[in-house]
Amino acid sequence: xxxxxxxxxxxxxxxxxxxxxxxxxxxxxxxxxxxxxxxxxxxxxxxxxxxxxxxxxxxxxxxxxxxxxxxxxxxxxxxxxxxxxxxxxxxxxxxxxxxxxxxxxxxxxxxxxxxxxxxxxxxxxxxxxxxxxxxxxxxxxxxxxxxxxxxxxxxxxxxxxxxxxxxxxxxxxxxxxxxxxxxxxxxxxxxxxxxxxxxxxxxxxxxxxxxxxxxxxxxxxxxxxxxxxxxxxxxxxxxxxxxxxxxxxxxxxxxxxxxxxxxxxxxxxxxxxxxxxxxxxxxxxxxxxxxxxxxxxxxxxxxxxxxxxxxxxxxxxxxxxxxxxxxxxxxxxxxxxxxxxxxxxxxxxxxxxxxxxxxxxxxxxxxxxxxxxxxxxxxxxxxxxxxxxxxxxxxxxxxxxxxxxxxxxxxxxxxxxxxxxxxxxxxxxxxxxxxxxxxxxxxxxxxxxxxxxxxxxxxxxxxxxxxxxxxxxxxxxxxxxxxxxxxxxxxxxxxxxxxxxxxxxxxxxxxxxx
Length: 514
Fold this sequence. Notes:
Layout: H1 2-8, H2 11-31, H3 35-48, H4 69-76, H5 83-94, H6 99-102, H7 119-154, H8 157-175, H9 180-208, H10 212-243, H11 247-267, H12 283-287, H13 290-320, H14 325-330, H15 333-346, H16 350-371, H17 382-410, H18 416-444, H19 446-460, H20 474-483, H21 494-498, H22 504-513
Helix pairs in contact: 2-9, 2-10, 2-11, 3-7, 7-9, 7-13, 7-18, 8-9, 8-11, 9-10, 9-18, 10-15, 10-17, 13-16, 13-17, 13-18, 13-19, 15-17, 16-17, 16-19, 18-19
């Protein structure tokens, strides 16, 4: 009991709780990235065409059941693509008859395009997978403002525990979903849980770390949990899916979520209602603040780049690089590692030069995205993805403390609403990115998608200069004068000045008593 009592008063243990919550939420966010495209391809395309022949090179024994060489060619509707992987399997049954047509394909570069069949299905899957990934952010976008208002009324502890409960249900639903509709529902449900966890968690950190420098460091550590979740999620999901099964990564996450719930029960006391001590600034007022809008825009556009990569990069790798399933998740590993480094490195600098870190970060995001289509294999993605992750880490770790600093400087120090706006901006990028990215890839191609979003980040970067020295707003001056209501009364006698802590109402009551 003594340990729990001291722990509940320790900001560091609160930081641990928020770190773990963001970690698990973002593992679940990215663990589905390499699983969903191949799972839908296996269950829908291969299931519908199982009688026609194999779709991947692994099931080679099915080839001899088809008529000889000409039938295989007609099935793939391409005289060079399919026979590369099956030439040796088809040759023995045909004797010498299969060798003459078997030689021309050997000089063709077709194997690069022969990894997966169903080009039209893959083009449609870009859009469907993008919408599935965007559903989480779209739901989170709608729920965030209400969570911000709720935290101002009842505090941060209960919303944090609600977020854990919903995330646990979503994780279990992912494990046992076998159709696109159920996966879509589980992803949308995760958005509700993420809204509660992220808004309440970041607001809680801002309230227990009032000093700007300490707050920047704490935000950097908490965002390190986000980065670590992104780092673990995609490789963990691809390896577990290929070697164990689809449900295995989600069941592991469900068990870890239960441990997180027990930690919250011990540290946060989620049954206790503790509303904000100061009245929060209305959302409409914050949305009219140009400096908050600039900071929110930087969060939105920088994260939109990686949000567009999540549904489109794995499918592009399947089409152009012949990548095996485990590489689809490993491609995001450099971005995740560099994001982890960037958030911890630049969180401490946010209160000094956050605007400069954000401006440089957005420019690097744009340049890195422009370099992604130049890769010809997974090793060519290491540099662009590492630069992308490091730059987004610069922007996120700088902008999150700046949002708290802006609300301290220009409004009232109640953080639930402003971090709801920050999370809305974050989710806007992850909602617009996947949903439009798939459609743009289908219409213009993957390289043009990278050019568009990269140029958008480079063009937005100079606006971060406006955050260099934001002025204190008149509303904040009025609030300060209300906190010291008798200070302007220079005409008051000395006896009245001695009663400085009293409010005007209590002063009036004293006169009535006299």
